[in-house]
What we know:
The protein has 635 residues and is α/β, with parallel strands linked by helices. Helices cover 52% and strands 10% of the residues. Strands 9-8-10-12-11 form a 5-stranded mixed β-sheet, covered by helices on one side.
Amino acid sequence: MRGAWANLLRLLGASRSTHAGLRLRDVGSLGLVAAILALIEILGRNSASESSDAVAAFALAGLVGACADGHRRWGLRWTAWLCAAAAASGRRFQPWRFELGVDLRGRPPIASALPPRLVLQVVALAVLAGAAGAWICWVGEPLRDLAMRVSCLGYLAGAALLWTALVLLTLLMLVTPVALLFDLTLSYTSLRRAKVRSAVAALVGAYFLLVLACAVLLPLWVATVLLAVSVLAGSGLPWLPPHRHLDCLWRARSGGRIRSIGWRTYVSAESLAMLLVPLVLVVLALGSEAVGLPDDASTPVSTALGSVAAWVCGCGLIVCYALYGGLTYLARWHDPERPAPTVVHFSGAGAREVPGSIRERLERRGWKLRFAPARPRRTDVCVHVSGPGESPAETPETSEVSKTSEVLKVLKGSHPLPAGRKPAFRVAASELEDPRLLARIARRDEIQRRRILMRTLESIFRRAATRPPKTGTGYWVAPQYWFVPSLTRDQMAGEHTQILEMIPPLYYRALPHPVRRHFLDISRALEVDLIFLEDGLGFRGLRHVLRVMFEQYDIHGGRQPAREIHFAGLPKIRVILHDFTLQEPLIKPNYPEPDYEEVGRARILHVFRDRGEDEELEPTPDESDHLLSPVGSPG
């Protein structure tokens, strides 16, 4: 059909060289298109069912394709005018688009406001859904009959768009739960990729059987209820406790002022705007059947597509938000912002003789106590209270777990370790009154947390090195934030997961909460929000940088921010501290710039391979007064 109309347009444009021929081609093709549209309008008004509407919509789509082909081949003036009008209409919506980023600095504060596009989208979809529901419940007249009385062509265009949107939405919701199940199974379990695929295949099969059973056994209005529940769940999930404050920055793509918006507000509004789309499409397609009322309209195409989309989207959105909501809740529950006091584990024959004054003193400092026979955890400071006849000497450091294989066992979830494998103080019961013991315990707690951080990050980087070929230029390291679930790259292209940009294992499973809290304190004191590690350095380069950060934190007591000069002298490493403020690029020759967010504020510590020859050479002064004179010279 499209080829036949293209041949007619070619016959009307037989003259190719003269101005009259060009004008005849434009007028003839426009007249032919108008005649075909009038014919579709006349015949469409007499159609009694949606099956004939589908044929007419297909013919209308073929006519549009033929016009596009004619515009590409011959450059018709009226099609060029339509394209220019459509482009101008699209440019009118350009100011409504906005860029978004995370504000990790928070200083100075920025005025808050809601993006106009987001507000308009939510309000428009909510009004459309409410109007469609009110029309169905109170008026009862089929929307097809109303649209046919106004314009058949308008109805056919709208119906074609509705059917296309329902098909695309169904395909999207068939793929999204599968990809999300794959990502979470890969991230939350220690299974290899091949076994993950087998497990996900079984879960996907059970999921599709459940959807099929629901579609066969339950009435259609249940699917509409599932869609409504998903809308409420998606918009209300960010407001569930625990509440963690996080600000985002946004700016219109056409330029303008930077504004801030709370993370919970943005996620809630964006989820509401996205989830109202399938609800509106399903209500428009099903009519009164969406709410369980009888529908006398003959709309087999819309009913079939709407029913399939309702069940697939209803069940799929519930599954997606249950999985993603659980992941978000776990990340917020393990937020490093929560306090992580020192835990002291007392063992030995004299542990029962710890006086009450010592317990009160430790609890007054906010510390927690644990006594044998309870097993110590990874971050506990073990104190062995010697009994009569035991040596109070401290156990050697060689008893500490240091093998990577045992660290990998810890990554799989076995946090408690045997007490005999932990370093401990051996003190006599009389030494518990010594005030210096508290300082030793506090220092040992810091050292233990840092060692666990270093060993765990080393294991994570070794696991990341076994992944497929990478895109981007390096890794982002930020275990101190709840919204950064794992090690990530500056560019993710489906390397390991399908939807979630994560490199297993997750931080909250690999690193104990006290370790992440301690690193958060160090990062805040040194004013380092993010660490970027370039490819080729590996964990060895990061180890040198972290040791310098620990040293600066200990020397200055957390009262001085980190500077580039503190990292000078590291072998084959160049550290650059970049104050990324409102899309300010990193201006350093010979060094790659990672893929940032569009807008945001953060102080980023870049760890690069030292390339040299990037420093600006200062000219030698000409005046001799500014030069040093040799010793013994008359000047």
